[in-house]
Amino acid sequence: MFWWRALMNAVPTNLWLYRRGLRETAECPWGCNAEESLTHLTCSCAKLSTIFEIAANWGFQVPKFNSWNELLDGLRSSADDNPSMGRFYCYIIYQFWRARNDKNHARSCSTPSVIVATVLSMMPRPYSLPAMEQWCTAQPSGLPPDKLWCTPPPNWLKFNVDASIKESAIAGLGVVARDHMGRLLLAAGRHIEQWDVTTAEISAALSIREVATLDMMDYDGIIIEGDCRNAIQWLQAAFHRLHKMHHNIEGPDLTFLLDFKQVLFQFVPRESNQPADFCARMACFGDFLWDGGSVGAIPQTFLSLLRRESDCM
Ligand SMILES: [Zn+2]
């Protein structure tokens, strides 16, 4: 409804109200010293920029638009190439509008972090959408320029998964779980017989089932990140089908993912998935499970890969 009103230019921004004599000032309630027009509300408000910065720090980067028409063009191209990110942008604006109404009526309003976390929790699961991919085209990797890896939001977990295939058709599967502080919860490796890369990468994500602990279900959500686009897209589509039909689909069993409050899949470039890649390669030589609580038992090379990522967090 909000976006329908926006498209009809019927959102009661302060400028909209001022022009109709319903408000004494047209200024943005966040103290931007600018008129609160539709463009300001959806593209250029300083508060909105803070919200997008936080989203980018968590790995969800969207481009900056300079006008309402530019935004519409961006959403149009997102509908073709990357609908999940377009939806993400629209949800952000709607939650921002709600916070802005609270602010306008002197009620307590959501902080930027709460707004982004709410949007991620609300991303609809029952729709068949392609996996979220970075929208930003300026960076080849799509990540913010100073980042190798992005932390998930507070009270979320991120699983990085990867597979490595040997000539002997032995595939190593790697999983690395970290929290919003970038702290290692666990890292695991397991080997299976497999020669197909995409299937192995899917199996790597499915091996989360074997390492997930009960308390992980209490988190607000998990983000599963992998560097194989086909596998991530397959997982996302299968997970959504599972949701729609409420029963098992053919192929690997993903029902364990329903135990998490929210599950998002993200494709990341290879250089942002190095700890999981390390685990996958190690797993070719034997299974292992490293507990983040006892770092003494974890190889230094792996710890330094983690450190390298958190140094640019
Ligand atoms: Zn503003």
UniProtKB/TrEMBL annotation:
Molecular functions per Gene Ontology: nucleic acid binding; RNA-DNA hybrid ribonuclease activity
InterPro entries reported for this sequence: RNase_H-like (IPR053151), RNase_H-like_dom_plant (IPR044730), RNaseH-like_sf (IPR012337), RNaseH_domain (IPR002156), RNaseH_sf (IPR036397)
Pfam families: RVT_3
CDD domains per record: RNase_H_like
Matches recorded under Gene3D superfamilies: Ribonuclease H-like superfamily/Ribonuclease H
RNase H type-1 domain segment(s): 160-283
Designated name of the protein: RNase H type-1 domain-containing protein
Organism: Dendrobium catenatum
